[in-house]
Amino acid sequence: MLRNSDRGFGAITIALHWTIAALILGLMLIGFVMRRMEIDPVLQFSLYQWHKSFGFTALGLAILRTGWWLVERSPQPLPSLSAVEHEAARLTHRMLIASSLLVPLSGWAVASASTLDIPSFYFNLVVIPHLPLPKSEAWEAFWAFAHAMLAYVMLVFVAIHTAAALYHHAVRRDAVLRRMLRSEAGAGGADIVAKGK
Amino acid sequence: MIAIRQLPLVILPLALAATAAPAVARAPALADAAGDYRIARSSIIHFNVPQVGGGGGIAGQFTNFSGAFRIDGRNVARSSVEFTLYPDSVRARERRIEEFLRSSAVFDTANFQTVTFRSTRVTQTGPDTATIEGALTARGKTRRERFSVALTDWNRRSISFTIRGNIRRAPYGMDVGTPIYSNVVSFDMNITGVRR
Fold first, then answer.
1. Is residue B181 in some structural domain?
2. Percentage of residues in chain A with pLDDT exceeding 90?
3. What is the pLDDT averaged over residues A177-190?
4. Is residue A1 assigned to a domain?
């Protein structure tokens, strides 16, 4: 139940997947509002701090997710997938794993390189130190640009990943999306068996 | 209550010159220091807001202010001070911080051009020290605050004090950034009064 099997995902993979997905979408939304919209400066300051606290949470979970992805087996691809589709999915998953690490790391770099030197006070509980990076307006601007670009790239892969899952669910009517929703291997397994034979 | 009309920042050491410690600044005889002063532009209004985990916090100065004080020759307790500062003149280590301090998040200088202080009570605490209590008004809110004053220099034409006070900013509607940045703003001022 907790571990992945050849036939489907375990509860750990599923919980990490959806928690990180929710964090990523929430962080994208907060990031857009706090950077691209004209808002009250008190709200803006507050959103930055929430963005940092949730961003560090996302980084921690992404590190766990990456470690889990490296050591845990992956279920067999559904037989309904062509070789090209399977390769495209693998590439997309790798890009999502990589960007789930790089986007928050580059955000941490923004806070670290900023001459404003605002402490990262994780949910007002503990101060997370800055990365040992040079502080200047130029470096801050560089990291802010990198953070935004990496986030946009990630958003593209999130869109591809989501569209593919919905396509498989609604059009191909296979178990691609379903097996990331439930850890019971039954449905996915039956699907594999039914279509594989 | 004539005294109360004036700024609350300063107090005077009254002590007899003869008994004052000779060290830094000998306190003048009260009669010598008594009089009306205006606060010189060369005075320094410095503040600091500490940040969590140490580090510099938010430090800065106000460069535009005005004020006056009266040292009562018969009764120091009747001395008084009135002080106005223009928060739009805030200077910090970078423009983004200055603009944030001016914004509606902190001083809201578009709607509140001044921060004022009027003393209500002056209490001598030593030969060259005193405390000043008074009404501080910022962002439309008035609260009783207290500053400690120490005489640093004086001559026949001017008199200087170091004035320190810790002000909690949240009651004035300026609690943005807490608890990353302390609620307590520490003021460290060097005020010079020039005899009028």
1. yes
2. 87
3. 70
4. no
> What does residue A4 show for φ and ψ, rounded to 5 degrees?
-70, 155
pTM: 0.86
Nearest to A121 among B97, B105, B180 (CB): B180
Query: A123-164 pLDDT, tens per residue?
Result: 999 999 999 999 999 999 999 999 999 999 999 999 999 999
Residue B170 structural domain: 3-14+29-195
Among chain B, residues having any CB pair with chain A shorter than 8 Å are 51-53, 55-56, 93-94, 96-97, 100, 103-105, 176-177, 179-180
User: Contact A10/A27 with Cβ under 8 angstroms?
Assistant: no
Contacts of B100 in chain A (CB under 8 A): 41, 45
Give how many domains chain B has, as a whole number.
1
pLDDT tens digits for range A56-111:
999 999 999 999 999 999 999 898 899 999 999 999 999 999 999 999 999 999 99
Q: Which residues from chain B sit within 8 angstroms of residue A117, using beta carbons? A: 55-56
The answer to whether residue A6 is domain-embedded is no
CATH of the domain at B94: 2.40.128.110
CB B148 within 8 A of CB B164: yes
- What is the structure's pLDDT at A80? 87
Provide the shortest C-alpha distance from residue A140 to chain B (in Å).
13
Q: Which of A40, A41, A118 sits opposite B180 (nearest CB)?
A: A118
pLDDT tens digit sequence for B66-84: 999 999 988 889 999 999 9
Per the CB < 8 Å rule, is B104 touching A49? no
Mutate one of B95, B100, B101, B109 to test the A interface: name it (highest A CB count within 10 A). Answer: B100
Q: For this complex, say whether ipTM is above 0.90.
A: no
If we measure between CA atoms, which residue out of B134, B132, B96 comes closest to residue B115? B134
Q: Which string of DSSP letters, residue by residue, matches chain A?
A: --S--SSS--HHHHHHHHHHHHHHHHHHHHHHHHHHS---HHHHHHHHHHHHHHHHHHHHHHHHHHHHHHHSPPPPPPTTS-HHHHHHHHHHHHHHHHHHHHHHHHHHHHHHH-TT---EEETTTEEEPPPS----HHHHHHHHHHHHHHHHHHHHHHHHHHHHHHHIIIII--STTGGGT---HHHHHHHHHHHH-
Q: What is the mean pLDDT of chain B?
A: 88
